[in-house]
């Protein structure tokens, strides 16, 4: 007989891994024990050599559905004097170990639990917090590790005898299911409005209130949603006015796939994402029979849809015939989701008519994840609930460095690299907001705690000196007595894409709104030669003036005026703007004159190579969007207009060589679009041709750079690559030229993965030299 110690790392806590090990051991006649050991599952077994080998193989083949094994380490124990084991046991957890396993993400309620919830006579019939080891909340209820009930928010709900019996039975699927409970012993849901509303069935009453046109605040798993009907215009408009969000698209929740298909196009891969355990919001195209209120996603050809991911949601839809409810995060833009009952009631006073609350604490906020498909390939717009805190594999870069990367300033996530695993946080938001900045710091402490990270070897941050995250990086650098490494924004974008594909050299098209450049300028349409710790700027869009700085991002006609100004006389450009675009200037003619004077006198101007600003100017030029009221609005509406158009216009592409790099003339493109627009050309066709011209120009710049550097891979990163038409056009041009094209698949093209790239660049820079 032999004894062996097996250490398993990965997502192996809170997923039914120990009882699964128990059942495999019993089936194989193996004696020993299994227990959580800090961040690792420890298994000690006794048996003959062949049985132990087969047992170890079964651990990998027969693992629980939501577990993930990263490594299995086996060591033979030669202490033959220790007594033999009698049977196989599951021992209490111990914290005497440091490893890289971590608690799993929250996942959707499984089919078996939903069968119980919907089965008359079952003791969990219509109970909204039903869960087991295969489903339910994990990350959002866990305060520390090892992952045991006493270290979750379920500690406040002692198990009743029936639940305790399941919890203690290794053969039961609820064995040590820390979120398990029932109506007798678990959390409860209640309605609130100026006090608790008496109701035998709060969810049924909530559905009735929604169908009557009310707005509800609904506390869920990782935060709170504002919920409203989607068929009638009035509830949607009412919610918009109360939030001050008159144009921003709202995400919806729909009960099932057939219902979604009644108003949206659902491809097979989109259906798979909608039905996955992760249950993200999926951006779908509206179909020809779309019948939801036009105010749900105004002036867009698509909308965000998700399916219920908790029994709470399923039950709400069981009491209504509504095809969808708006489910939008109950927070102001950029601020953290609300989680505390009293906070929900006080901060949403005047927004919600009623509050559907529960008494289980949300330990970790976690917004809904958002994905979109481009040519059948998934793209994360926001990677959060359902995915966090599952790490990325960074073992090719480092297995011994601890790096903390803080991201940019808006749409922030942070990343923690430890032992070759990079943990990217849930969506944090806009750190210029005080509450969000505090949330960031709290989330960092939590992530360090659950990964048992005590020391940091390097802190990475953005190059911009005024970002709050940059200032925090320096504070943390002092705290941990470690270097602070600044990473240029688009270099970080490229690095995140490189980690997605495992490539260490390629040409990256980095196209977004803005990123602080090495020269102190506002970059945003860049062609970079990426080679790990370093990069070279090979090309860009033409630098354009921004009169009034950030005012240009809100009022894109300012950008249009600036891009055209060098090519017309002052009188011509002022007359053009006053005649055709006057309403796009809040102060009308007077403002047009002021902007023109700024450009003439070169006063209060910044300069940018931003792709986002070019798309904004095109949108304004075509009378699609004259004011940006939410992030990306002008470009999104341009895309939606172009969706129904044809590429009928020959928009000129002119590339010149300036200041050591190739530069694409975007003013020439805008002039061509303007001239065609003034001649009365069809707007949707012009929009299609304009988008395609920008895409072709970026692709040509990248192909030229690839040829110069002798590389055969070209990739795209930055928020512009959420645009399906632009992504697919660039892919087409690049591949037609004989190059391999890559785009984000497991990380965000936008700023949500900047911290991931920062961590990679910082680790590469450090290498063996910690003096950096």
Q: How would you sum up this structure, described in words?
A:
This protein is α/β, with parallel strands linked by helices and 772 residues long. It folds into 4 domains: 2-90, Alpha-Beta Plaits, CATH 3.30.70; 105-370, DHBP synthase (Alpha-Beta Complex), CATH 3.90.870; 372-499 and 752-766, Nucleotidyltransferase, domain 5 (2-Layer Sandwich); 540-747, 2-Layer Sandwich (Nucleotidyltransferase, domain 5), CATH 3.30.420. It is built from 23 helices and 31 strands. Strands 7-6-14-8-9-13-10-12-11-15-16 form an 11-stranded mixed beta sheet, with helices on both faces. A 7-stranded mixed beta sheet has the order 28-29-25-24-23-30-31, with helices on both faces. Helix 20 (666-678) runs antiparallel to helix 21 (683-709). The chain is globular. The chain starts with a strand and ends in a 6-residue tail after the last helix.
Task: Supply the key terms.
772 residues; alpha/beta; Alpha-Beta Plaits; DHBP synthase; Nucleotidyltransferase, domain 5; 4 domains; eleven-stranded mixed β-sheet; seven-stranded mixed β-sheet; 23 helices; 33% helix; globular
């Amino acid at each position: 007989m032999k004894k062996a110690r097996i250490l398993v790392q990965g997502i192996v806590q809170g997923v039914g891994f120990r009882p699964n090990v128990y059942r495999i051991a019993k089936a194989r006649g193996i004696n020993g024990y299994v227990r959580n050991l800090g961040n690792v599952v420890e298994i000690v077994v006794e048996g003959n050599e062949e049985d132990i080998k087969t047992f170890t193989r079964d651990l990998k083949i027969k693992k629980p559905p939501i577990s993930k094994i990263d490594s299995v380490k086996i060591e033979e124990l030669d202490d033959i004097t220790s007594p033999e084991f009698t049977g196989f046991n599951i021992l209490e957890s111990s914290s005497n170990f440091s490893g890289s396993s971590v608690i799993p993400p929250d996942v959707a309620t499984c089919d078996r639990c939903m069968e119980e919830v919907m089965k008359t006579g079952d003791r969990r019939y219509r109970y909204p917090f039903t869960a087991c080891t295969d489903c339910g909340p994990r990350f959002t209820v866990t305060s520390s590790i090892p992952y045991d009930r006493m270290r979750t928010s379920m500690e406040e709900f002692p198990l009743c005898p029936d639940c305790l019996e399941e919890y203690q039975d290794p053969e039961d699927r609820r064995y040590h299911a820390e979120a398990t409970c029932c109506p007798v012993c678990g959390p409860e849901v209640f309605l609130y409005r100026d006090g608790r509303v008496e109701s035998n069935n709060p969810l049924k009453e909530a559905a009735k209130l929604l169908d009557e046109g009310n707005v509800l605040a609904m506390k869920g798993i990782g935060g709170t949603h504002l919920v409203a009907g989607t068929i009638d215009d009035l509830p949607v408009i009412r919610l918009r006015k109360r939030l001050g969000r008159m144009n921003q698209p709202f995400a919806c929740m729909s009960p099932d796939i057939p219902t979604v298909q009644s108003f949206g196009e659902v491809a097979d891969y989109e259906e798979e994402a909608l039905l996955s355990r992760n249950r993200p919001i999926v951006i779908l195209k509206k179909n020809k029979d779309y019948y939801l209120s036009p105010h749900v996603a105004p002036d867009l050809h698509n909308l965000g849809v998700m399916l219920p991911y908790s029994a709470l949601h399923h039950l709400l839809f069981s009491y209504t015939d509504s095809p969808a409810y708006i489910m939008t995060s109950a927070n102001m833009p950029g601020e953290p989701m609300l989680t505390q009952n009293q906070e929900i009631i006080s901060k949403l006073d005047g927004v919600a008519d009623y509050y559907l609350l529960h008494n289980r604490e949300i330990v970790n906020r976690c917004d809904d994840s958002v994905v979109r498909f481009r040519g059948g390939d998934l793209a994360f717009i926001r990677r959060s609930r359902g995915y966090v805190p599952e790490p990325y594999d960074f073992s090719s870069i480092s297995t011994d460095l601890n790096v903390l990367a803080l991201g940019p300033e808006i749409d922030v996530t942070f990343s923690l690299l430890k032992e070759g695993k990079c943990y990217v946080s849930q969506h944090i938001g806009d750190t210029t907001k005080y509450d969000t900045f505090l949330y960031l710091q709290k989330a960092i402490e939590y992530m360090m705690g659950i990964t048992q990270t005590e020391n940091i070897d390097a802190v990475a941050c953005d190059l911009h000196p005024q970002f709050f995250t940059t200032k925090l990086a320096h504070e943390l650098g002092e705290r941990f007595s470690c270097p602070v490494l600044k990473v240029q924004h688009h270099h970080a974008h490229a690095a995140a894409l490189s980690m997605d594909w495992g490539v260490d050299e390629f040409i990256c098209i980095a196209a977004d709104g803005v990123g602080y450049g090495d020269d102190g300028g506002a970059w945003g349409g860049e062609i970079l030669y990426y080679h790990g710790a370093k990069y070279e700027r090979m090309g860009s869009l033409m630098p354009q003036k921004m009169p009034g700085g950030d005012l240009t991002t809100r009022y894109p006609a300012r950008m249009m005026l600036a891009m055209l100004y060098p090519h017309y006389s002052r009188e011509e450009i002022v007359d053009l703007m006053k005649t055709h675009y006057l309403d796009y200037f809040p102060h009308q003619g007077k403002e047009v004159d002021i902007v023109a004077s700024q450009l003439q006198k070169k006063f209060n101007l910044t300069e940018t190579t931003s792709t986002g600003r070019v798309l904004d100017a095109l949108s304004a030029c075509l009378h699609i969007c004259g004011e940006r009221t939410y992030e990306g609005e002008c470009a999104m509406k341009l895309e939606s207009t172009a969706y129904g158009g044809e590429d009928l216009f020959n928009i000129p592409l002119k590339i010149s060589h300036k200041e050591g790099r190739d530069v694409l003339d975007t003013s020439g493109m805008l002039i061509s679009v303007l001239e065609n627009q003034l001649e009365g050309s069809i707007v949707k066709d012009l929009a299609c041709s304009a988008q395609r011209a920008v895409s072709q120009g970026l692709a040509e710049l990248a192909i030229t750079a690839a040829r110069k550097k002798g590389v055969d891979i070209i990739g795209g990163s930055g928020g512009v690559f959420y645009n399906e038409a632009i992504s697919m056009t660039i892919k087409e041009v690049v591949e037609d030229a004989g190059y391999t094209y890559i785009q984000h698949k497991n990380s965000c093209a936008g700023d949500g993965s900047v911290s991931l790239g920062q961590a990679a660049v910082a680790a590469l820079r450090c290498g063996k030299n910690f003096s950096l």
